[in-house]
């Protein structure tokens, strides 16, 4: 077991530069084209570019030569968990933020969500929270419920993204600690339980969490990706 730190690289939507498209592979360019909204294109491009430039530096190869595999385990199309030989990684984007987490050997899952005060947290709770979590959520004032729900959501999503289950998992069975308590997985029947869960600081409009599939202690380094994205790739 290695004790290397998890690196979480953060980009903002304003870091986008269209020269970065040159570093994408054909499947990524296809997905980029398919997004209708400019902000979806920008977030996707930035997730790809951060992954490629960080991995390119690590492997000492140009970003365009990094072989990312996004094969979906359900349908085979290139929209699944990002995989690469020799590194574990996870991508998330929401609102103005893009996060990409890396660890050399331990699976990681990151999830960032912009808090939308307009969501109907109570109905979302019926499909994604365990009973005990929904009861906890109900204790919050209606005005605070969107944030509390989003904290629950990112903690659960980080875990199912780390395992690679994604939306295949029934989030109601992934029971995590209440939003005002330190992040932790409390119960997920059938899972062996090895996970460290931490909330990430992402500003007052966002909730974000990171799951690392290890029982051991973890160190997390948050890194601003802007300098990495602004220049020419170093390889
Ligand atoms: C994991 C998932 C639940 C996250 O979605 P989200 O919270 O809306 O979006 P995020 O920005 O946080 O995460 C998106 C990233 O999750 C990653 N991802 C996709 N499937 C994943 C999985 N099963 N496990 C872990 N990560 C996954 C991808 O890297 C994706 O980044 P990309 O768009 O740059 O390729 C996503 O898989 C999803 O929404 N799936 C919907 C179901 C679907 O379309 N399934 C297709 C089946 S054919
Ligand atoms: Zn699919």
From TrEMBL:
SUPFAM superfamilies: 4'-phosphopantetheinyl transferase
Family: Belongs to the P-Pant transferase superfamily. Gsp/Sfp/HetI/AcpT family.
Domain 4'-phosphopantetheinyl transferase, first and last residues per copy: 107-210
Keyword Transferase on entry: yes
GO biological process, one term: lysine biosynthetic process via aminoadipic acid
Organism lineage string: Bacteria, Bacillati, Actinomycetota, Actinomycetes, Propionibacteriales
Naturally occurring in which organism (per UniProt): Kribbella qitaiheensis
Molecular functions per Gene Ontology: holo-[acyl-carrier-protein] synthase activity; magnesium ion binding
Top-level taxon in the UniProt lineage: Bacteria
Domain called 4'-phosphopantetheinyl transferase N-terminal: residue spans: 20-103
GO cellular component: a single term: cytosol
Name this polypeptide is given: 4'-phosphopantetheinyl transferase superfamily protein
Annotated InterPro entries: 4-PPantetheinyl_Trfase_dom, 4-PPantetheinyl_Trfase_dom_sf, AASDHPPT_N, P-Pant_transferase_sf
Keyword field: Transferase
């Amino acid at each position: 077991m290695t004790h290397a730190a998890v690196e979480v690289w953060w980009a903002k939507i304003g870091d986008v530069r269209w020269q970065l498209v040159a570093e994408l592979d054909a499947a990524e360019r296809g997905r980029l084209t398919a997004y209708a909204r400019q902000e979806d294109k920008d977030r996707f491009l930035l997730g790809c570019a951060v992954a490629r430039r960080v991995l390119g530096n690590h492997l000492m190869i140009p970003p365009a030569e990094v072989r990312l595999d996004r094969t979906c385990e359900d349908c085979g199309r290139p929209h699944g968990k990002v995989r690469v030989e020799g590194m574990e990684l996870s991508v998330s984007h929401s609102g103005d933020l893009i996060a990409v987490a890396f660890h050399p050997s331990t699976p990681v899952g990151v999830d960032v969500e912009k808090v939308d005060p307009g969501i109907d947290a109570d109905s979302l709770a019926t499909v994604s929270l365990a009973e005990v979590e929904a009861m906890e959520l109900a204790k919050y004032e209606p005005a605070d419920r969107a944030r509390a729900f989003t904290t629950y959501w990112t903690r659960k999503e980080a875990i199912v993204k780390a395992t690679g289950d994604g939306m295949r998992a029934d989030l109601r069975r992934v029971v995590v600690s209440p939003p005002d308590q330190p992040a932790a997985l409390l119960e997920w029947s059938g899972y062996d339980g090895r996970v460290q869960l931490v909330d990430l600081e992402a500003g007052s409009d966002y909730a974000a969490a990171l799951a690392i599939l290890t029982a051991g202690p973890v160190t997390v380094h948050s890194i601003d990706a802007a300098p990495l994205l602004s220049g020419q790739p170093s390889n």
